[in-house]
């Protein structure tokens, strides 16, 4: 697979070949064997019909009048080589002199695979490139400069796109010094040195000479410079005016600065030639300079969850094997095969630390290069991949890839990261560094998607405004998540309690209340979301009710697994979670701080619930969260045992002086009706809450008694 990423070779063309055997038949003709080596295994000529493969002579020779036509060849895919038998012809006196100087070892041309499947059929494929440039500001397709598209006429002829290039008046001829330059050209061919630019020094443009051709001569005509970066172009002999033929130097490559300004023709005709017809062949999908916005089929496929899940099923086994592939076309995604993935074995590294700077840097670089996504990202960075696309990777990329992922070229080319497992070592749980990378990717506008087997949905990472953390949310629910008022359920993972019926009534009543009030947190245009810890017990009750009521059901799930211990029951995530973020155990406190609830609801709970209560209390004390009502579901005596002694102790000690008002933020309720009354008064701005409100000696408000 990695051979596709070689920026030095295209798969429709071979490297240049050299003469290994040369027999001169007469002053105009020679027979030669050309040997080509270093052919990539991806060369298309290995698999198509032999009659579609032909020899392309160097344009330097063709402009002198030396043509070479292949009449047979043998390809060896295993050895990456080819042996081509060509007939060399000299057209004109200058060419006959050049033929005398050709020797064994001279580099004279290459093979081109005119694969019909790669022929451009729709003119729109090329037309959309007009006015666009590559990363260096060079036109992708233009005649005469970036804005010269009006001079390039595209038409559809016999099911293929043909461009007609108008010829400039006149023709090129050689000055008197050209013959003396031929030995230098011959030496350049032996050394593999490009001589075409030097040959131009011996050419003169004669604008008043006619553009017709006679027997035994070469006609050199000129068009405006044709810039092509996205396709191969080939002169179509069948569409030339009668009596004209083009030399086999008929291929215009996409890696030239401005090819196509000089064309070499022969034949016999009194009629002047007016234009040059070209047909086009697409590059490998990675190198087409195609924009993501132009890939309609790919975008349609990405909207279909089933297509993405099936694509990940093609990743090579075993499942802990790291694997990645870069996708640029819809049919590539649909027909993905195991051999198209780049794989790496999972290896864990012990880094020596910053005190060993040089060794640390070297090991980090090696680690990065061992990542399966590295070949794709590196190829984007150096210009080997020019089409925009998406990265499929079995595991979320290592945070050590951040420098590469956030590079300018990759940011331009990478239009999405799709992964299936957050970690090869911790499975479904993100590390602190992972979440930092998610945050940076989000800020750099590189979308990240979790192709999640647990929810069987594609989840997109999104962050709410002014918060440096986010969640993975179903694609269709992203707008709801970003605009929603967030309720939360805190409670025991061991007990569901007896609150389900009342909690359902409470949340249903809040949904109805949206049409009765107009508050920033609750109105007819604001959706609702509910967040829990994602586990069983009270958390499962909350997520289940939310999903039943079409409230976005979210969770911050922590990894409670302990080495050499049985999995504790908190580990089991409940099946009603739609949006989520995951945390490793060492970031338990950080996870708790990232609930960011607008309106918390507490059910019966243990030590974790006590911590969550204190955290919500502190949020309001320091002003991180406004004074909003917090519901305490259950018997007042239960909450008094949990809260009152601590509140009274702090009150009597004077350690909460000025913060006594916090007691008016907590409301103990037993029924949904009581909770709805508190919420209505709050949203109607009638609730005495906040630092100007009363203090309650129990540390909370007993609804029905105190209020």
Topology (elements, then pairings):
Blueprint: E1 17-26, E2 29-37, E3 53-57, H1 59-64, E4 66-76, E5 81-90, H2 93-101, E6 107-113, H3 123-127, E7 141-143, E8 152-157, E9 160-166, E10 171-174, H4 178-191, H5 196-199, E11 203-206, E12 219-222, E13 226-228, E14 231-235, E15 244-246, E16 251-252, E17 262-267, E18 275-282, H6 296-302, H7 305-313, E19 322-327, H8 330-334, E20 342-344, H9 357-369, H10 374-382, E21 389-395, H11 402-405, H12 408-413, E22 414-421, H13 432-443, E23 448-452, E24 457-463, E25 470-474, H14 478-483, E26 485-490, H15 500-513, E27 528-532, H16 538-548, E28 552-558, E29 579-583, H17 588-593, E30 599-602, H18 607-622, E31 630-633, H19 636-653, E32 666-669, H20 672-683, E33 701-702
Parallel strand pairs: 21-22, 22-23, 26-27, 26-30, 27-28, 28-29, 30-31, 31-32, 32-33
Antiparallel strand pairs: 1-2, 1-6, 2-5, 3-6, 4-5, 7-13, 8-9, 9-18, 10-11, 12-17, 14-16, 14-18, 15-17, 19-20, 19-21, 23-24, 24-25
Helix pairs in contact: 2-4, 15-16, 15-20
Care to count the β-strands?
33
- The CATH topology of the largest domain is Rossmann fold
The geometry reads as elongated
Question: What is the count of distinct domains?
Answer: 4
Polypeptide structure, described:
This protein is α/β, with parallel strands linked by helices and 707 residues long. It has 4 domains: 2-118, Elongation Factor Tu (Ef-tu), domain 3 (Beta Barrel), CATH 2.40.30; 123-170 and 210-286, Deoxyuridine 5'-Triphosphate Nucleotidohydrolase, Chain A (Distorted Sandwich); 290-453, 3-Layer(aba) Sandwich (Cytidine Deaminase, domain 2), CATH 3.40.140; 469-707, Rossmann fold, CATH 3.40.50. It is 26% helix and 26% strand. It contains 20 helices and 33 strands. Strands 29-28-27-26-30-31-32-33 form an 8-stranded parallel β-sheet, sandwiched between helices. Strands 20-19-21-22-23-24-25 form a 7-stranded mixed β-sheet, sandwiched between helices. A hairpin with a 4-residue loop joins β23 (448-452) and β24. α15 packs across α16 and α15 (500-513) packs parallel to α20. The longest helix is centred in the C-terminal third of the chain and has 18 residues, at 636-653. It starts with 16 loop residues before the first strand and ends in a 5-residue tail after the last strand. The model has no long low-confidence stretch (mean pLDDT 91).
